[in-house]
Amino acid sequence: MNRPTTALLAILGLLALLLLLPHCATPPAPDKDAARVNDAANPSASLGLSATGDLTETIYLPLVFHDWSHFADWGATGDLLGWAVSTAGDVNGDGYGDFIVGAPRYSNGETEEGAAFLYLGGPAGPAASPAWTGESDQPYSWFGYSSAAAGDVNGDGYGDVVVGAPRYDIVTGTVALTDTGQVFLYYGGPAGIVTSTVWTTHTAQDHARFGAAVSAAGDVNGDGFGDVIVTANGYDAEEMNEGAAFVYHGGPAGLTAAAAWIVHPTDQAYANFGRSASAAGDVNRDGYSDVVVGASWYDSGATDEDRDRGAAYVYHGGSAGLGSLPAWTVVGDRREAEFGIAVSTAGDVNGDGYSDVIVGAYKYTEDYEHPWREGAAFVYHGGAGGLGAAPVWSARGGEESSKFGSSLSTAGDMNGDGYADVIVGAYNYEDDHPQQGMVSVYYGGAEGLCDSYAWSQKGDQQGAGYGFAVSTAGDVDGDTCSDVIVGAPTYNGEELDEGAVFVHLGDGECDVIARPRQLRSDGFTPIAPLGLSDSASSVHLQLLAQPTQPISATKLQWQLAPLGIPITDTAAISGTSATWTAVTSNTVVLSQGVEGLAGTTVYRWRVRMLYWPGDEQSRWLYLPWNGPQEADFCTP
After folding, report:
1. Of 56-70, 115-129, 148-162, where does mean pLDDT reach its minimum?
2. What is the DSSP letter of 305?
3. Which of 1, 161, 347, 399 has a beta carbon 3.0–4.6 Å from 109's, enabling a disulfide?
């Protein structure tokens, strides 16, 4: 059931500040340097109450950022809008990033049935109103507790989305399963999300909380179809409530009915395995996507000092899918730190061609000389053998109980330098107001992430929980720089704990506003990131651009190479348009069919514009969801 959504959003004008600093420059620190815990029993219990206040305040802004905000202004108390936020990929194939937001305690005919809202990107940024709203129509099911991009699971070229409802009840005949949980899949298409659910699944256990976390898994078996990972952190396996993770493979008919992969590796009661899960990217650059799963209550031993240290697990993809045993496991080294409370791909933060992983430990305490339970985040670099055993980068909250690392994500490439960046939330951070929350962005570079954050912003309302959820939003405005989305589920508007979400747009030194797109051989149908081309030997590359400097004519230049081969190598495919295209309006479309590809091969590519008479050019442009070294599509 849908209530009117025309009054859902308020667009709050333009917030711009220009402080151009060199890469990894140390920013001016706020008074306190800082960061969600998803309580499956009560979503708002750990967040506290909010109080009326203003919109978020910028602490430090190294580049131009524009703010878009959505408040739950339908006048409902406790909907918790912004509990889950995620990129949705590109659900309508227009080249702009879209995103999805969850409100698990939304009520519309059914109490706390939950809802998810999809927003489409465009040249002016996110749309003012959601293009699609989904509900569960079952009371207390908490639909929207988790939501994410699913990738392109059926190979039609459009991104799909997946939504979890971990308290959904299943009643069939004589079987009644309470809080077993259910997951819902929705297809994208030229007009956006198809309104009806196309796929659902659940477990056969009471209180499994299936759908506690959902995420695109990437393409774990290399068939060109997106796969999905779902967790059930209350699942009973060898031990009670140890938790489990499930992966469903995509294909021409969509996701498989049965899970292709199920793991529950902890053999420990209440390990909370599946508290978090994400695509890991391709950490060993073998052409198959990998996944990472957190178990935040994992005990490293039997003593009190071993309690709730937490653990994270990475499983490598392959031709048959994910391996049954983890290829990498790290256990937290601090008591009750809850390492693994949040996990995510970091993207490729150092540009070496291997995906990296970031893990949060929101109750981490360094030692007695540092703030108690300040929280921390750790990054592990990928390599030929997978992830390294030790973190190469870490950051701490700097404030007692700030919950830094409770949420984290790749931020994409926010400043256009070719390296992936990361965003970390600290929803309990306190400065001007108790529990106002804060997020920080760290830039990538040739040596990895910078030690100091490049940009940070805090909530300016008591108990707002700003940063409870964070994610890359993709490129929602087509400027080739990635953007981020932040959730504040206990933000107060007219009612208590309505919730709010905020999008912050990245901006580099761009000489062109552009949308690079990969298309099938017809030059029209999109290929989703990591998707399958329809031709074993060709692909169509397109660039829709708005040059920011006066030019009379332009050509397209491209480079394309199999994953693992330098894009400038002699084995790469490169070329330049044969003729100049006159620029007669503020937008120019450059398209090129590229031949000579090999079958069953993973490719990456980039394009740029040459300016008449040919002695100047734009910077190289990449798909906004992927870094320059990561996979873009594969051939059949």
Report:
1. 56-70
2. G
3. 1
